[in-house]
Amino acid sequence: MNGKSLTRSTTDKFLGGVCGGLARFLNLDSGLVRILTVIIAVFTQVGWIAYLVLWAVLPTDTSSRTGFDEVKDAFGKGTGGPAERPVQNPDDLR
Predict the structure, then answer these.
(1) Of 14, 35, 78, 90, which sees the most CB atoms within 10 A?
(2) Share in percent of the chain as helix, strand, coil (round to 5)
(3) pTM > 0.90
(4) How many Å is the Cα radius of gyration of the chain?
């Protein structure tokens, strides 16, 4: 279209940056894209699914990290190795 790639915005974001990135890609106002997304989500239920899928698969505009990478980091599995187990107290009888 205009030579830009579709990515999530890190500067123009409300939740995940999907609408901001989509607005930049389509050369539209991000407020208009957000309003249209909410209207589509409320009346068709497709908007929520589309937003979640785009959030999960689109990388951010400053790196190649996707929403899946953010979730892995939030649960301690994004470091590339196994998550550290807490040290068990020998006095704990559980």
Answers:
(1) 78
(2) 45, 0, 50
(3) no
(4) 18
Distance CA 1, CA 85 (A): 48
**Nearest CA among 5, 48, 54 for reference residue 25:** 5
Q: Is the pLDDT of residue 8 over 80?
A: yes
CA–CA gap between residue 59 and residue 18 (Å, rounded) = 10
Residue 93 · residue 81 · CB < 8 Å: no
Two tokens, residue 45? 């239920």
Cβ proximity of 76 and 86 under 8 Å: no
Domain boundaries, the chain: 7-60
Q: What is the pLDDT of residues 69-78, one digit of tens each?
A: 777 877 876 5
pLDDT in the model for residue 32: 93
30-44 and 18-26 helices cross at what angle (nearest 10)? Answer: 120
Tell me the average pLDDT across 24-28.
90
